[in-house]
Amino acid sequence: MTGERIEEAIVDLGEKELGKGKFEGKDIYVQIAQFDFGMKSKNPLMGLYVYTKQDPNKAVPFNRDMVSQLLLPRIFSERIVRVYCKAEDKDKKKDMKEAAQKWAEQLPKAADAEQSK
Asked: d(Cα 101, Cα 79) in Å, to the nearest integer?
């Protein structure tokens, strides 16, 4: 989902569901930040080579069985959506915040998304 589509969704939500038609797309700015390990959703440890006590001079590919499963994350990327209100009017800011929070509540939670895989 792009920033523009999120802006439209928040404005539509504010107008239709919350009855707040006072703000427009020009009053809102959405920034999407993607955080990963440079490998998108792939496990960055799978490209790692390690040295073992059995052969300290030879690097071998990392294997998940080398460490406890409790230490390994299952999610390797994260997306953060920041919504900024450009309007200076306090009522617009309040309405925009309410619409943005309502939009965020409708998103699937990370735990739910992980379980549905």
From this structure: 16
